[in-house]
Design brief:
heterotrimer; A alpha+beta (117); B mainly alpha (112); C mainly alpha (411); A: 117 residues; SH3 type barrels; 4-stranded mixed β-sheet; 3-stranded antiparallel β-sheet; 7 strands; C: mainly alpha
Chain lengths: 117, 112, 411
């Protein structure tokens, strides 16, 4: 489904996995940013990805614990970057274009690049 | 308050009896397994590593079970002490007889 | 449907069916209750066929593995609870498998248990690192086919086949005392848990994504799940039937994992024993790999990391670090001296508690018209799926009281 018109935020978007245009997993829809246009139906402006987006969805102690373990980063992915929504959200560009590959790149430095078939 | 204490003491008694039964069962089964290994070691020319490993494991189980028995003067505790004094290659028919005797003790406790 | 691929898939499912829990519980079930628990193995295997087929089909059509769907269906809070519970359950199971490998290697070589635990984890990590997904699964699954020696041993001892056949009929033996009835109930729950371990669904559905299953693989999935799991179950039932014939009369309730191999030594001698130990080694090692990867899949999928062994380790760095760390934690538990048999008991208990949370999102998704289109559950799949879900719920509720009442099946 191309993202236009009405969408079921909870059943059809929240907590879906995100893939970039190359099919690489690059996050989960951890929260959604809405633009309240005062009176008319709110518009989704950004997907929020990262542990910082759990605030408001988890109890305070859990948010504190997550912050200690995984930090508080949030990446905002604009709505118009979405190519398709079905069983996952597919973006119209590579993960790097949205800053969604930073953490993976940081950890890549620890993995030797040899030995695997 | 009295009924709560009665229930708690009954549960404790049941739990203690349950633990004794579990220890007896472990003791009986480990002895029987040891007997079977020793019988087959000779008959089937089983590899030494397997036979030694199984004997060690069975004797360890017997030691653990013996430690869990409440009454050190009970028949089961005396048999466990005797088993621990046997060499690893003890005769399998002796071990089988001990396992059978322990099974009878276990059945008596279970039906008590 | 490629016949060679299908055959390999079935053989992998057969060789990979038995793990340390089924080994232990099948032998104990046979020695304690003769053939009366065969029907529980058969019943649980049908459940595994139903749920395995669904998880493979959902992966092939919705192109998402179980844990991605879990979070979407349950939401963040309940999803996190499920993730933590399944992490604990799978970690205990993985540690039990690693301990099992170490015991078997100790029995094969005479080398120290702790040394063998370290050596086996080094080999397991190297295997997962070097081999692509398809060959990780196939190597252990095909080598696990040495377990067929248990079926050969059963034929050799010429058991009462009529009694074994009657064991497939649902029953509770007559004349059991109250205590024995409770123990029978515990074994029923334990066998259901051992056959339906959550890690199997996570691994199978993620494996379907790893192998890029699509619509063309629906039939392969169905055949692998039915034929493969059925034949694998027969291996577990062989262990039970051998124990009934050989251990019951000898007053043995096998406390030692190595005792299962004696079932084969008695009719087939030294060679049979060695083949049985090899079969057990590879079956349990395969399960260690599956539980470790299942945990890593769960974490990576829940948080949206790149994942999969169809990628090189450095292409999915957080996933790679996750499975290495999880395998090392399992090793740590074993080296800390926790008895693998105790780990098996706790693995069984934790797994049955997690099962309802694992299968509910799967059931909801398999019947979802939006994701599954014309491949959503038909009437039979829905009926069987929900029926088994109810059984799993009842088993989950009964598990803790039965565990306490029987001291973990020991009385």
């Amino acid at each position: 489904m191309k993202p236009s018109g009405q969408i079921n935020l909870i059943g059809g978007l929240l907590d879906l996995p995100i893939l970039d245009r190359n099919g690489l997993y690059c996050g989960v829809v951890d929260d959604i940013e809405l633009d309240d246009r005062g009176g008319s139906a709110p518009q989704v402006t950004h997907l929020l990805v990262g542990p910082g987006a759990y605030r408001g969805r988890l109890p305070g102690w859990a948010v504190w614990l997550v912050a200690r373990i995984a930090g508080t980063d949030v990446t905002r992915v604009p709505w118009d970057a979405i190519e398709r929504i079905d069983s996952s959200v597919t973006l119209n560009d590579a993960a790097e274009a949205f800053g969604l590959a930073r953490t993976e790149d940081r950890f890549r430095a620890f993995i030797p690049k040899w030995g695997a078939m | 308050m009295r009924s709560i204490l009665l229930v708690l003491s009954l549960l404790t008694a049941c739990s203690s009896r349950s633990e004794q039964l579990a220890a007896l069962k472990q003791l009986r089964s480990a002895t029987a397994e040891w007997a079977l290994v020793n019988a087959q070691a000779v008959r089937q020319h089983l590899p030494a590593a397997y036979v030694d490993g199984m004997r060690q494991a069975a004797r360890k189980q017997i030691r653990q079970a013996a430690r869990s028995l409440d009454d050190p003067h009970s028949d089961a505790a005396r048999r466990a002490a005797a088993l621990q004094a046997l060499p690893p290659d003890a005769p399998s028919d002796l071990l089988s007889r001990e396992a059978t005797a322990l099974k009878m003790t276990e059945d008596q406790l279970e039906s008590a | 449907m490629n016949p060679l691929e299908l055959t390999l898939g079935i053989m992998t499912a057969v060789g990979g069916f038995v793990d340390i829990s089924e080994l232990v519980f099948a032998a104990q079930a046979g020695s304690s209750f003769h053939y009366a628990l065969i029907w529980v193995f058969a019943f649980a295997t049908v459940g595994m066929m139903v749920l395995g087929e669904m998880s493979g089909r959902v992966a092939a059509i919705a192109k998402q593995p179980v844990f991605n769907l879990m979070r979407h269906r349950l939401g963040l809070k309940l999803g996190l609870v499920t993730l933590l519970a399944s992490l604990v359950s799978n970690l205990i199971t993985c540690a039990a498998e690693v301990g099992g490998i170490a015991i078997i290697l100790h029995l094969l070589t005479g080398a120290g248990y702790r040394l063998m635990a370290v050596a086996s984890v080094v080999v397991l990590i190297a295997t997962i690192w070097v081999l692509p997904f398809k060959w990780i699964e196939r190597a252990y699954g095909l080598l696990g086919l040495f377990m067929i020696v248990f079926a050969i041993a059963l034929v050799k001892i010429d058991p009462p086949w009529t009694e074994i056949a009657k064991g497939f009929v649902p029953q509770v033996p007559h004349g059991l005392s109250d205590k024995e009835l409770v123990t029978f109930a515990y074994f029923t729950v334990a066998i259901i848990s051992a056959v339906l371990f959550p890690y199997e669904a996570y691994f199978y559905s993620s494996g379907a994504i790893e192998e890029e299953w699509g619509r063309k693989d629906i039939l392969t999935n169905r055949v692998t799940c039915t034929v493969g799991f059925a034949l694998g179950s027969l291996l577990a039932i062989s262990i039970l039937a051998n124990a009934a014939q050989l251990f019951g009369p000898a007053h043995i309730d096998p406390q030692l994992p190595g005792s299962a191999a004696l079932e084969v030594a008695l009719p087939l001698g030294r060679t049979g024993l060695l083949l049985a130990l090899l079969g057990m080694l590879f079956a349990v090692a395969g399960a260690a790999v599956e539980t470790c990867l299942a945990n890593a899949y769960s974490v990576a999928q829940f948080f949206g990391w790149a994942w999969g062994r169809h990628k090189k380790p450095w292409e999915a760095p957080r996933f790679t670090i996750a499975w290495i760390v999880l395998m090392l934690v399992a090793l740590g538990i074993v080296l800390a001296g926790v008895d693998p048999m105790k780990l098996v008991e706790y693995a069984i208990l934790f797994s049955i508690l997690v099962l309802p949370l694992t299968y509910l999102p799967l059931l909801l998704l398999a019947r979802d018209r939006h994701f599954m289109r014309d491949h959503r559950n038909g009437l039979l799949a829905n009926l069987l799926g929900w029926a088994f879900f109810v059984v799993i719920l009842i088993a989950a509720v009964a598990a803790i009281p039965l565990f306490i009442l029987t001291s973990g099946g020991q009385t």
